[in-house]
Amino acid sequence: MSEHAEGPYRSGYTTGRGVTSGRRWSQAWRGGVYLLGSLGSGIVTALALPLLCHPRLARRWAGWHRDRAGRLLDTPIAPRPAPPATARRTWTDPTTRRNLLWLPVNAATGVALGLAALLCVGNLLPAAVATPLWWAFEPEDRPRLFIDIPVTDWADALILGPLQLLLLTALAYLFLPPMARAHARICLATLSPSTAEQLTDRVAVLTRTRADVLDAHGAELRRIERDLHDGTQARLVAIAMRLAVARQALSDNPRNEQFLEGLLRDAHEGTEEAMTELRDVIRTVYPPILADRGLAGALTAVTARCGVPTRLDIGDLDRVPAAVEAVVYFAVAEALTNVARHSHATTAGVRVSRTADRLSVAITDNGTGGADHRRGTGLAGIRRRALALDGTVEVDSPAGGPTTITLELPCG
């Protein structure tokens, strides 16, 4: 789905030989705008510090800075946890403490780095004005270059003006991007949860998914038992009874061929129906097509059977664990079933790719949208299967469409 960063903050700000001059100037521009915005937010933070100490305001203020820093670094920002339900828990919540810590940090770093950017950018204007228009000012109001050198003749204007422009432009080109990145990283480092908090959250997620997996496993066993008991077992009992009657009839009256033929025909048909039901049950446990054709072949068959024209794009997957293959197969099959039944789509697409130890699956359609796992459309089952393997599921389905369901599964 998306490219994985090679480092903690891989972004458009990566410098190196491959970075073009135009891209570098874009970085300098973005960095300058970001730092000037940080200067304004730092001043606001310092002036409104007592007001911003309210947990809800601090949360919103910190969240705005997190999103801003993430956009600058092109770093995906994890969704923030929901705020605590009670005021007492709000004040003791680690997130609240980080938000409050960010206030003085932002006031200090934002003002310091923002003033440096303002000094650099702000002094470009006097140089640009002094070079051609120094003579238009009164002697006492003549522009000054390099902070305190007045421009009194054309020699000063033509030498000092371009020199100041060149030096300040070089400073902006070289230092504004790393200064902006430094502030953004300080922001994310201050507002990001600690390792202990991440571990606690991870344990909570695993505990919840484990409970969901156990519930799903129990429900699946009950379904298989019910299908075998009510379907296949009942048919096998009926077959056994017919064969017993046929055996008895054969011993009593060997010439009653029509009666025997009817019993054997019913037994044969029942056997075929029982075999079909057994195959259906086995298919829900682990689709035989995966063992026969592999994941690519199984997905090709699923997309071919879909009632909506579906394009399949499969990259180089290498070896994928069987459990991951089953989850992908069931997810694609369920999603395409929903597309055919509910979306009113005319086209759909399935894209499967692998990056390092992550398998990504994207199912799209151009239907009416509005898919929601809380309404029992099969998405809840997809999410449950993915979470059982420590995967993630994202559903983007605005009203009016289109819909994109994205799965990411570990397959190391």
Automatic annotation (TrEMBL):
Reaction(s) catalysed by this chain's protein: ATP + protein L-histidine = ADP + protein N-phospho-L-histidine
CC annotations in GO: membrane
Listed Pfam families: HATPase_c, HisKA_3, Sensor
GO molecular function terms attached to this record: ATP binding; phosphorelay sensor kinase activity; protein dimerization activity
Enzyme Commission numbers on file: 2.7.13.3
Top-level class of the enzyme under EC nomenclature: transferase
Region (Disordered) location: 1-20
Residue intervals passing through the bilayer: 33-53, 107-137, 157-176
InterPro entries cross-referenced by the UniProt entry: HATPase_C_sf (IPR036890), HATPase_dom (IPR003594), Put_sensor_dom (IPR025828), Sensor_HK_TwoCompSys (IPR050482), Sig_transdc_His_kin_sub3_dim/P (IPR011712)
Domain Histidine kinase/HSP90-like ATPase residues, every copy: 323-412
UniProt KW keywords: ATP-binding, Kinase, Membrane, Nucleotide-binding, Phosphoprotein, Transferase, Transmembrane, Transmembrane helix, Two-component regulatory system
Name used for this protein in its record: histidine kinase
